[in-house]
Amino acid sequence: MDAAARASLGRTAQVGLLAALAAASGYAFAAVPNVKPISLVLFLAGARVGLAGGLVVAALGMGIYSIANPWGPAPPLVLLAKVAGAMLFAGAGAAIGPSIARRAPAPRVVLLAAAGLLLTLPYELITNLATAVTIGMGGRPLPTLVAGIPFAVTHTASNAAIFGVAGAPLLARFARCARCGAGGAGGAAGAGGAR
User: Fold this and answer.
1) 23 and 31 in contact (C-beta within 8 Å)?
2) How many helices (H) and strands (E) does the chain have?
3) Which has the closest alpha carbon to 191: 15, 73, 60?
4) With 90 as the cut, is the pLDDT of residue 10 above it?
5) Residue 109 sits in a domain of what CATH number?
6) Nearest to 129 by CA among 167, 84, 92
7) Domain span at residue 48?
8) CA dist list (Å): 81 to 27, 136, 177
9) Interior CA angle at 159 toward 156 and 160, to 5°?
10) Helix then strand then coil, % of the chain, to nearest 5
C-alpha cells in the first residue's frame, strides 16, 4: 500500500471513529436533558479532520444518535435540523479550532466557552423551528420557541461550560496545527490533508 492510500485509509478511519465517538457521547449523556457533549466532539472532529471530514462526522454521528435515540427517533424535519446544526459545530471546529488550539490555555478556555455558547444558539433556533413545523405550528412558531427557552438555556450554558472546561485541553490534542499536532496521534501530517 502506497503512502497516499495509507493516508486516505487513516483519514477514513479517523472520520469513522470520530462519528462513533460523537454518537456514543450522545448516548452517554442521554439521561441528562440538554447536556450534550456531542457538540464538543463534533467541534473537535472538525478541527482534527477538516471541513469535509467534519461534516461527514456530524452527519453520521448526529444522524445515528438522532435516529436511534433512547427517547425515540427524531421526526424527519427535526432530524435534518439536528444534522444541519451538528454541521455548524464541525464546520466551526474546522474553521477556528486550529487557531484557538495555538492560544495559551487561559485564552483558549475563554474562546472555546464563547464558541460553545455562540454555536449553540443557532442550533437551538433551527431545531426548535423544525419542531414547530413538525407539530403544526410553523405559521406561529413563537409559542414553541418560548416553550423551548428553558431547554435552550440549559443546552447553551452547559455547552459553554463543556467547551471551556473539557475542550481546552482536548483541542490541543485534536487540532491539525503544527504546534499541537506534534504530540497527538498522527499530528499535523496525519490530519492536515483531510480538509
Assistant:
1) no
2) 9, 0
3) 15
4) no
5) 1.10.1760.20
6) 84
7) 3-177
8) 19, 16, 31
9) 85
10) 80, 0, 20
CA separation for the pair 61, 190 (Å, rounded): 21
Residue 187 lies in a domain: no
Q: What is the mean pLDDT of the chain?
A: 89
In Å, what is the CA distance from 168 to each residue of 40, 44, 78, 97? 10, 10, 30, 10
Tell me the residue type at 171: L
Computed over its alpha carbons, how large is the radius of gyration of the chain? 17
- CB of 109 closer than 8 Å to CB of 162: no
CA 2, CA 10: separation in Å to the nearest integer? 12
pLDDT in tens, 136-187: 999 999 999 999 999 999 999 999 999 999 999 999 888 764 344 333 444 3
User: Has residue 132 been placed in a domain?
Assistant: yes
Is the residue at 185 inside a domain? no
Q: What pLDDT, on the 0 to 100 scale, is given for residue 174?
A: 81
Per residue, the 3-state secondary structure of 93-123, as one string, reads: HHHHHHHHHCCCHHHHHHHHHHHHHHHHHHH
Q: Is residue 193 part of a domain?
A: no
Cα 55 to Cα 53: distance, rounded to the nearest angstrom: 5
The cell for 6 is 495509507
The amino acid present at 82, given as its one-letter code, is: K
